[in-house]
Amino acid sequence: xxxxxxxxxRLKDKVCVVTGAASGIGRACxxxxxxxxxxxxxxxxxxxAGEAVAAEINKAGGHAIFQHTDVGETEQLxxxxxxxxxxxxxxxxxxxxxxxSVFKTIVDQTLEEFDExxxxxxxxxxxxxxxAVTHMLRHNGGVILNTASVQSYFGEPGFxxxxxxxxxxxxxxxxxxxxxxxxxxxVALAPGFIHTPAHDGIPPETIERVKQSxxxxxxxxxxxxAALAAFLASDEADYITATGVIIDGGYLAI
Length: 254
Ligand SMILES: NC(=O)c1ccc[n+]([C@@H]2O[C@H](COP(=O)([O-])OP(=O)(O)OC[C@H]3O[C@@H](n4cnc5c(N)ncnc54)[C@H](O)[C@@H]3O)[C@@H](O)[C@H]2O)c1
Prior knowledge:
Blueprint (H helix, E strand, L loop, with lengths): L14 E5 L4 H12 L3 E6 L2 H13 L3 E6 L5 H15 L4 E4 L14 H28 L3 E6 L12 H21 L3 E8 L12 H9 L9 H12 L9 E5 L7
Parallel strand pairs: 1-2, 1-4, 2-3, 4-5, 5-6, 6-7
Helix pairs in contact: 1-2, 1-7, 3-4, 4-5
């Protein structure tokens, strides 16, 4: 459909909900899932960009709808699931991906900033997983994908609240996978340095320094992450659950 790479139709008959799908990794995953045959619900707080992603998928021959969603509001996640079922009949891949955070030490951040990080970047993953797993257990099972981070595994300076959320997402993923196997798989997708709009505003010299600190000597594109996510969402990854899968160019190994 759009990809430079050959793609399969291994997500045919899947219905995928992706949060934070208006931009970056979420957008690339929504498009890739559609390319592989899935029907897509694009969810984001950014209506214009989210509508554009759904339109791009539909224009290329796929099937997508947009649902305006603040993932921090539980009623809006309930509405998102209901809209997906109404449009496509069921959901069997629920990808929690949206995030919001400040990048500060615990001394510099405020309680309000911490609470807002938890609301969007952790509580939403818990509640979205809760309603999606409940739905999947009543139907034919499914997959919870949670975008975590290399920050789930190690401590980099200045990421206090973000690391709290990302570490907990990995733990949450393990518990869902253990509790609800074999009907539901849960996998945390743990990217390293990925070129997305989330990096807008980072000085070029900082980007270059980070790239040189990665064994692969580069960041990755969101499409590279989406290729991994599509595999993890598919039945080919049936033996992968209750764990994190890292895509970081070797960053964590040094
Ligand atoms: N870019 C990286 O290097 C990197 C590395 C590791 C992990 N991640 C993770 O990948 C995920 C996606 O990040 P990205 O880099 O693509 O960021 P991005 O800024 O490109 O996209 C984030 C999206 O989340 C949406 N969003 C924010 N608050 C929301 C809310 N309350 N409700 C619904 N949507 C909301 C934004 O509108 C945006 O479309 C995040 O979970 C992030 O932590 C990114």
